[in-house]
Amino acid sequence: MKLRYLTAGESHGPALCGIIEGLPAGIRVEQSDFASLQQRRRAGYGRGARARIETDEVEVISGIIGGLTTGSPVALTIRNRDFEQHAAYMHPFAADVEAGRINVPLPGHADLAGAARYGLHDCRPVRERASARETAMRVALSVLPRKLLKQLGIRSTCFVESLGGIKAAIDYAAAPETIADSVEQNGEEFLTPDSAVIQPWRDLTDSCAAENRSVGGTGAVIFWGLPVGLGSHVHYDRRLDGILAGLVMSIPAVRGVEIGMATELAQARLPAVDQIVVAGGQISHASNHAAGLEGGMTNGQPLLIRFHMKSLPGNAGVDSVDLRTGKSARPAFYRSDIHAVAAASVVAESVIAIQLASEILSLCGCENMEYLEKRIKTLVDI
Does residue 109 belong to any structural domain of this protein? Predict the structure, then answer.
């Protein structure tokens, strides 16, 4: 992998931090690029109080000078504003850790398994790191790979396909640009290309909020303008479909990933292959049922990744066990979003963007953007 990155930090700790290395010199970036993407992740009708507390201002520690990457590792920090409310037990050298103990694991969360693995009787260290708050840093780290892709003419969009069983009307045969334009026109509340579904989704969200429950849904990401041959067929761990599926599955509450319309292909409701044709002197495909990936590699068609997210566990109201006493207990109140499918879609787009940029850099082997832009033009067109 050309790009490597790490994140660190707890949900209610002092800050999130991240480092990404392998980026070429010369990627142009502005502070507003970080701010606008974080706002997109925080937005959405049905987000919880935490999304309103945090501003997610990204501080650049190294790797960018004068608005350009230098080729060295880029280090970022996001301060947690909510840390002040939890400092008594979340400070690295807190004296009153007992005050913040979580003795009753939350069903549907990482609490119980994490506590068992690390020999803990307190679930807080597990919950703090397993929280989806960590994805704020992965989104921040994606800003530079996104800018790299954009400079190479590669575009993307993300959106919500369904919420609580109510599906948006989406024409996946339409040009990706058309879908992206519709998403932008409909705003950030639900991130959908279908304006007609916004009110039913709003009504559903309001009813769930009144009942203090959450719902899941399906999100999607499309990238287009990709060169042919990213990924590889030569070994299982280099197949791009497997890599991308794993990255999207790493997003909290995501329980399934599909390459394109995989269920329809499995049930023979769509053709399993795309005819290869010659048009304008170029070899291409007559359709895109493969969703841009064949044999573990991009084939030049738009890349479509869809994912399914479960309802969030914070307000499930399910009994658990007190780890101190071994007796049945109800978990303490844990604030939750009504749904976070729109936010997860932004995160999915982010982790995919990082990987695609990494694949391009591995293929081209360039250390600055000037050479990379020249090199990618020499890639073989089908």
Answer: yes
The tokens for 186 are 């409909």
Token pair for 312: 């969030």
Q: Has this prediction a pTM greater than 0.70?
A: yes
Q: Taking a C-beta distance cutoff of 8 angstroms, is the pair 322, 36 a contact?
A: no
8 Å CB contact between 369 and 348: no
- For residue 94, the domain's CATH number is 3.60.150.10
Measure the CA–CA gap between 40 and 47, rounded to whole angstroms. Answer: 12
99 vs 250, higher pLDDT: 250
From first CA to last CA, the distance across the chain in angstroms is 25
Domain range enclosing 363: 4-376
pLDDT in tens, 199-221: 999 999 999 999 988 999 999 99
Q: What is the pLDDT of residue 172?
A: 94
What one-letter code names the amino acid at 75?
Answer: A
Specify if 381 maps to a domain. no
Residue 266 counted as domain residue: yes
Point out which residues pair with 298 in neighbouring strands.
Answer: 293
* Burial of 165 (C-beta count, 10 Å sphere; 0-12/13-18/19+): exposed
Q: Is residue 278 part of a domain?
A: yes
List the one residue out of 155, 145, 144, 152 whose CA is nearest residue 181.
Answer: 155
